[in-house]
Hints:
By secondary structure, the chain is an all-alpha fold. The protein is built from 14 helices and no strands. The longest helix has 41 residues. The C terminus is likely disordered.
Amino acid sequence: MKKIKSREDRIFNFINAVIMIIVCVFIAYPLYYVLMASFTDPAIVNSGKLLLYPEKLFLAGYQKIMSYKPLWTGFRNTIVYTVTGTAIAIAVTVPCAYALSRKDLAGRRLLNFLFTFTMFFNGGIIPLYLVINKLGIYNTIFAMILPTAVSVYNLIVCRSFFDSTISDDLVEAAKLDGASDFGIFFRIVMPVSKTIIAVMILFYATSLWNSFMNALMFMGEQDKMPLQVILRNIVLSNQASSVLSGGADMIERQKLAEQLKYGVIVVSTLPLLVVYPFVQKYFAKGVMVGAVKG
């Protein structure tokens, strides 16, 4: 029998729904505004008018973006850094998290403490730069992916997942059947860990895709810079005019420069927005399971 909600419950649900809708609008509208501004005449955008739809289409900015070579070089670099870095991060984080979740691991408490300690204290930027330079990986792909190969937060989430999912009885039964530690990990643990692996892939890929600080510190050549550095130069350093060429007059160049700032944001965020809906269900489930234990 369906439970009849009281008047107070209905009022609470209504107010809660209204608040959530308002919050969603405040979160979603800036993204929608950037998208609309990338298609709208910059004169209308600069007037401060509320954009609900592109009143006057202006696509010259996207035409310039498509022909701007450094942007696509940065796109290529970012894809390489993201795919390679995510693969290495998963290969390191998942086995490490599983090992730390096993109660029979020698020195488990000390290792957990050392990992957690680095979340609050670290050497800083200058020692990190010196280490990268001393290892001889400055201005290489390794300088982009090795410093971020293990996120302690992701490691703890992954370890908590194994704590709550892989029981000691299951591991003991596998050992009685003659399975080795590697056999248990690859034949039992990995098949039931698809959810947390998908979450880790999303976390690491998003972090690497949006990373630009490591590139500014450790990459010395412009053609090795990721997309976010190119975007930063255009949006923050006011270098949009460097994208423009030809005989356009000053007013037209200014309009193009304004729209390019919105266009490159759309181009850079579109891949993640396309991928996210396909992994969102794993994201929600994995984070909730991993949060059962701390």
